[in-house]
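dude i think i finally got it to work??
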Amino acid sequence: MRRWARADTADRENRERAYEDLEFLEPGGQWEAEIKQLRESAGRPCLEFDRLGTTVAQITGDIRQMRPAIKVVAIDDRGDKETAEVRAGIIRYVEGRSDASAIYFAAADQQVPAGVGHWKVITEYGSDSTFEQEIAVAPIPDGIGVRWDPDAVKKTREDAKFCFIPVDKDRAAYEEEYPDHPCEEIGGSDASFTGASDWSTPDVVRLAEYYVKTPVKKRLALMPDGEVRDLTNADPEDLAEAEVMAAQGQARIEVRDGHKIERYLINAREVLEGPVLIPGRFIPVVPVFGVEQVIGKKRTRRGVVRKAKDSQRAYNYSRSTQTEVVALQPKAPFVGTEEQFRGYEDIWATANSENHPFLPYNPDPKAGTAMPQRVPPPVASSGLAELSREAAEDIKGVTGIYDASLGAPSNESSGKAILARQREGDVGSFVYIENFNRAIRHTGAIINSMIPAIYDTARTLRIIGEDGKVDLVKLNQPQGLAVDGKSEVIKNDVTVGAYDVSFEMGASYSTKQQAASDGIMAFIQAAPNAAPLVLDILAKAQDWPLSDKIAKRIRTMLPPQIQAQEAQESGEPPPPPMPPSPQEQAAMQAQERQQQIEAGRLQVDMKKLDVEREKLRNDMLKIQTEADRLIAEAQMGAAQPGAPAADPRLDAIAAAVAQLSEVVSMIMEEMSAVEPPPPAPPAEPEPPMALPADLVEPPPGGFSFDPSALGQPAPDMMGQP
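look at this
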């Protein structure tokens, strides 16, 4: 309770003024109580022409149009990209099952006008019939009343040592839920030093969720593979293993200062529930601030309403006075002597409310010929009109939201000029959007730190990808068996590795979908040839009905390789091949006929080659036979008694025939190149013997041979040319 008192005192002024800012936007809250009472007692109007509500709605509308994208990245060797994507999918799953967007925007509705809003992250069982826990985002209805450690300085308050979330409960409901803790004892005289008098009233009893960081000593072990194990409450086997490896110099064990997060439910006197250990390393309460400044030792906080109150009050005063003046014009009184109205008082009293055909009066000698006259009505003041205009401009100047940002027509004519003027208004209010982004990122960090402790068993989650597709993902699934001392591989193991959170937020002037549509249209105009490849994405980026169905139909017309890539990214089976078009079928048939014609021509050419090869073989055989016959006759003639000596040209003729046979064989091999290679050719014969230069005329029955046919010079035959 000493911590409560310190936090309550440090932030009391900001908290009280924040409540006033919220009440200022409610009907009847824009007039100060004293002034309103005086005007109403005098019968004067106290009208409200709320212009700040539209300004606040413009900023919160920009926030609502955004679609935050939380991404997770691995920051050590044990993390990987696939598991990081799974963790990001789990965060989106948690946000989806919690309807987190509605919770975020409800906090923004307090952040923008009052300067502060809150939500929290809790753990709960998935249902009343399961042992599996889930993470959820939960609202804090009174975000202004949250008390933080006044020594915390970070925008996310992640450095705070404690936090209180007060909840005012109906007295009857409290007594029914906690019968053993009577509320009469809460506000006793002996508890006045704690400020407990505010904790119990005749109607409500205040409870508070109390989150606290408790210092602890952690024993950590750095393993050879880079894994950091927490041995503070480890099993004896794991502890012994780490100590053995440390003794061998393979691991390092150190004692570090750490903390644990605990939650209590308290009233002003006692603890009703707790302590409950909260997984993760953050207090699971997320603040989202407006404009926060530190002036010396004082921390101030405000929203967009704070500085615009006086301008709004001036506008209400000027418009109310204008209305009052105009309303009194038809009720101007009549002026006359008392004698002139005597006897006709009832008629003249109703002259401003009834349409009398005539107004009688008594002549009064004191008035001469004058008759009762109506007093001139009050004239609308030009100063009031000018005051109204100046007050309206002051509201725009203080908030930074001008007419173009609110959709009012101006001198801009093109769409780009209108968007540029709207963005100028967005820049003036960007501090709220930036702080909202920071709060969303911190929410992702809290959920990411809780994941290893909550999703530590094998289970299947239906997560949502960045493109909105729903996938079934199996967590912590064993793959294979342990072999040779190596542990089994765990797929999508979210309990190991270190991961950090990054954040991406869409454009503030419109939805990310509209920005994507505009960008794709500009790209198609710059590269029209690429239009068929991106038309499905353009259709999906539209916000009109059936856009998804149109995108699916266009996707079926994409090239097969792109369709296969899309199917692989979404985990779907590849699409079946598209049947060929009539033009493609005709082209394929023409190509097939051409191939058949070419094959027929090749067969005819092969047959011609076979005929030519056979003819050449026969001619060679004839030459060989004739040469053998001539050589045989010459040998027989030389063997007879008295025959002349053997003609020395016979050997040259035999060698020339052999060489010719070899040349013919080479030609036949080239002609048979399209067929399987023939067996290895016989050994190359010896080169032919050169014919003698003094060759004489052949004997009777012989024949002459021209060596020039073999590339050799032809000698003179018997001295003849």
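DSSP finds 20 helices and 19 strands in the chain.
im so relieved honestly
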